Amino acid sequence: MKLLYTLVILPLLVLLPAGGLLSQNLISNPGFEVGTGDDFTNWSKLNGADYLLATEEAGEVRSGDRALYVSSPGFPGEQWRVQLISDPVPTTVGNSYTFTIWGKAAEAGANIRFSTQPNALYGPDTAVPADVWTQLSWTFTANETMTRIALDLGQTAVTFFLDDAEMTTLDDTPCVDEFDVPDDQQPIATGKGKFLGSIYSAAQQKDHEHYFNQVTPENAGKWGSVERVEGVYDFSDIDEARAYAARNNFPFRYHVLLWGNQQPTWLRPMSDSEKIAKIRAWFQAVADHFDGSSDARATLEYLEVANEIINDPPNGIDNAPYSNNSADANSGDYVNALKTLNAELGTEPGEYDWIVNAFKLARQYFPCEETKLVLNEYNVLTNFLNITDKYLEVVDLLMADDLVDVLGFQAHAFTTRKYDSGSFENHTAFLRSHVDRLAATGLPLQVTELDIDGNVDDTYTPTDDVAVRDSFQKAEYQRIFGMLWNHPAVTGITLWGFRTGHWRSAQLAYLIDPCTDRERPALGEYLNDSIRNGPIPPLNDYAYACPTTALWGGYDQLTTRVELFPNPTRGMTTLLLGTPLPGAELRLYDRLGRELLRKPIGDQQQRIDLDLPSLGLTTGVYFVTIHAGDRQRSLKLTVAPR
């Protein structure tokens, strides 16, 4: 989505009643009274110290003798370049806190962003009203025992003043961790033939392996995260997620090469030719890094080439009625640059030629046998603003050149909820109708980003009744997740977080109670019980676009006879070759594209016995591929129930 994916706080601009909140102010030196010169005791200037000064002018101070004077030259999209941070405050994980500060701007256009450290929780920019002192308020759920309040102040070149900060909590009862996941609990989707994954980030790591068997990094793989400084690639954060997935044999989806957000800010001012050179270098850097040399650098099973191609393309313009990237330094602004490759890549000019060229470049850098290319977009489930129609136009163009392997679509709560007065049953059928449209392409589908809010009742009205909101979140999981999980074209679903620190924590979309660490009913009673213990969901045979894929749908290139017997099997199977194949290699994959076995075949060997139980294979479909030079042959192997 447009907002940063670690976004978890909904800021509210409010005028608090006299007397304020009822608990003690946790902020030291809240009025900036203590300090020498332009320094403030108990506060640190992490960035932009020259723009953060003390003022004693009467019209610029709300109370006492001093206030904070903010005068930034303006860093659009990089408000952290001017940043003030409080000393650490003791907090109880899972408890709710409210931070307030009074602000007044010299003119319209000023704004402030609240965040926390070290385990960052972000809120979007909030306006600082001009000419009148107004109390700005943010509420968040603590995810650390010591929390710093960070004020990002550098977005605009408008002078404003801040005074009288306060941080309080209304939670009088400390949270107690009441639940531990069993050490031997396997992922929910084990043996289901589909994956159920979740994002992997600092806030989402605990117990991930006990619930999920697929990994997508939340922010670590985005271009703006990896190459903050031009020419300096930092893969350290994403390496942790990749290594975790490889160690556990979980499929990994890289998120994302190209997008209209969270792109390097140094990129936008460049010429088209310079941007193309940087895009090529970016693709090459990712391909070179994930070279299979270690768990942290294991090759990528899935790669999102382009994200939100209709809603938020990297075009640097007002894309009404979709995104407006005209003032977004993070937008990349390289759609026109990609269009300049039409002649070189043999692409027909058109509205979406830049997407075709992006995928053609990706095919050059990422071997199609190892890495499946994914397209990602939201509102595809509803065709809002004709997104589904446009998405399928793009898919048709990509399929014409066998460029896309997997169709990805998001299922965030604000796209899957029922907005009209019709029945929930009719709305579910409406959502499924658009999944059916995607399935008609014959390509496998993946739900790339799913969450369901847990703060409302069955009319989507916010409620404080815990039982009501838990019940409705569970019902929505049964309705929406259930439809997607049981659609035969869907090969896997990725939740966009399950713990607090979730980007929709303000909507209580997380599945673990942050106070007790207990599973909410949508997780405990539905996913971890009904789905885990339910039947294996239906799954179509599907053909990846890549013509040299090792999986189902690949070309038969070897001319010699290749057989598997018995097939289906319950235990052993034998691979028979018509003639010896010097230098050949056998590889075994599951339906999710994970490599389970790779072994050389002797130069004179024509029989290879495979003990499937010893390899940990359970009931399901697998693929055996024989490689010999530049030729191969793939066979479908079925392991029957015992």
UniProtKB/TrEMBL annotation:
GO terms for molecular function: endo-1,4-beta-xylanase activity. SMART domains: Glyco_10 (SM00633). Residues 193-529 form the GH10 domain. PROSITE patterns: GH10_1, GH10_2. One of its GO terms (biological process) is xylan catabolic process. Its EC number is 3.2.1.8. It catalyses: Endohydrolysis of (1->4)-beta-D-xylosidic linkages in xylans. The active site is at E449. Keywords: Carbohydrate metabolism, Glycosidase, Hydrolase, Polysaccharide degradation, Repeat, Signal, Xylan degradation. It is an enzyme of class 3 (hydrolase). InterPro entries: CenC_carb-bd, Galactose-bd-like_sf, GH, GH10, GH10_AS, GH10_dom, Secre_tail. PANTHER family: BETA-XYLANASE, GLYCOSYL HYDROLASE. Belongs to the glycosyl hydrolase 10 (cellulase F) family. NCBIfam families: Por_Secre_tail. This is endo-1,4-beta-xylanase. It comes from Neolewinella aquimaris.
